[in-house]
Amino acid sequence: MAISPFRKFKTEPMAIANAANKDSDDQVANEYRWFLLFGVWSLYFAFGLTLTAMAPLVDPIRRDLNLNDSSVGLILGAWPLVYIACAIPCGAFLDKAGPRWALLTSGLIMASSCAARGFSHDQITLFLAVAGFGIGGPLISIGAPKLVASWFAGKERAFAMGVYITGPALGSILALSLTNSFAMPLLDNNWRHVMFLYSGVVLLISLIWIIIGSSRKARQMERMDGRKNTQQQWKVFADLLRQPIVVTLLAMAIGVFFFNHSLNNWLPEILRRSGMSASQAGFWATIPSLVGIFGSLLIPSLAIPERRSKVLLVLLVIAAGASLLLQYSDHIIPLGFGLAMQGLAKGSLMTILMLSLVETKGVGTKHAGAAGGLFFSFAEIGGVLGPVSFGALSDLTGGFSAGLLMLTMVCCLLLSLLGRLNRLHRER
Q: Would you state the pLDDT for residue 368?
């Protein structure tokens, strides 16, 4: 059937206008995504602040509530325990609903968890307050890489992941360096008031995200990326778990989080018991986070697929060396090297593993939320077992040497899993 020339005359300008509008939308998205990344970074900063807030306060909390190291370890491992149950549902929710309001919810839950710690009066109430963080945590730790994977590609994606991962590192630095040197003296050495202060900071950041995430440009970006995954989520999970590469990456995530969470939660106390004051221990404990910032900005961008296994090999050897050197925390030179090496490992290992998972065939940005849910659900098994095992070994042996040796053995296990991952890639 012939097309009317009048119809052609009418549709061509319309097509041109639509193309122009599309180009304009793409330009808006290209510009605003960096501003959106700042909002995600801010929430991840709040994540790190809330996560680390208790580490420099282990001693006053333990004395106030009459706790031993095993009890403290159980409390520190409370939120990963809840996280495990929430990660997969949160990943599925993010794939369907988008990250804007999910990330806001995360911020409000983190603020509530921090405030509830200040009202705790015994081991059970403090356990529940810390556990509440595990509900909000997955929404930011899964939502952040999903957003980055959606709006950045190639080296730009690796750089953006490195940028947002500095957020929790800086949040940790603030908590470790200022809690005992500034916040505690300012607030009459009352650890509960410190929790209330940090809760207010997280709430303020959540309000900033409301402004960023509610803008017209943010809504426009979400509509442009609003492709819904019609595949049933549990089928997605089953398909992912049938891939040996995915399973191996998940097993490695357990080991990495076992290592990271053990040292993240216990490092200030390790340093304090080696003879440092609480303030000195806090400042020294910031070294891994400071080094980790530079590592997270540089190393993931170097870990292109062709040399990713070599980068992971070097990082795992460095992690093993760090746990050995920290045995000598009362000697300044091995301590300094050990803390720097720990920072390089913790700043990059998780990011590279997550990047590897997203770029695995059959995952991609379409299933980034589901894959992220699986990743963190498995990883936080290590997040629970690490701090709890470390505290229990301290009570059993009367020190931290056995726990640090345990971390070295975990790194050796991770090296064997890396060998398996390389074999699977070669077979594919």
A: 66
Look-up of token digits 């001693």: 59
Tokens describing residue 136: 């909000």
Residue pLDDT, tens place only, 130-146:
999 998 888 887 777 77
Q: Are 283 and 177 in contact (CB under 8 A)?
A: yes
**Are the beta carbons of 63 and 384 closer than 8 angstroms?**
no
Question: Which residues fall within 8 angstroms of residue 216, CB to CB, at 6 or more apart?
Answer: none
In a domain, 9, yes or no: no
19 pLDDT tier (thresholds 50, 70, 90) = very low
The predicted pLDDT at position 210 comes to 84
Cα 355 to Cα 157, 221, 338: the distances in Å are 9, 22, 26
The band of 6, judged by pLDDT with boundaries at 50, 70 and 90, is very low
Nearest to 208 by CA among 59, 43, 335: 43
> For the domain that residue 422 is a member of, what is the CATH number?
1.20.1250.20
Domain count, the chain: 1
Q: Is the pLDDT of residue 363 over 70?
A: yes
86 inside domain: yes
Please report where in the chains the tokens 């050495």 appear, as a residue. Answer: 189
Residue 20: what pLDDT?
44
Spatial separation of the C-alpha atoms in residues 262 and 316, rounded to whole Å? 16
Residue 3 lies in a domain: no
| DSSP letter for each residue of 391-409 | HHHHHHHSSSHHHHHHHHH
Higher pLDDT, 230 or 248: 248
Q: What sign for the dihedral angle of Cα 33, 34, 39, 44?
A: positive
| Domain that includes residue 184, residue range | 26-427
Indicate the pTM of the whole model: 0.76
Sequence-ordered list of residues with C-beta below 8 angstroms from that of 38, at least 6 positions apart, any chain:
212
What pLDDT score does 224 carry? 55
Query: Would residue 85 count as lying in a domain?
Result: yes
Q: Which residues, in sequence order, are CB contacts of 89 under 8 Å at separation 6+?
A: 373
Q: What is the DSSP string of 195-227?
A: HHHHHHHHHHHHHHHHHHHTSHHHHHHHHHT--
Mean pLDDT estimate for the chain: 84
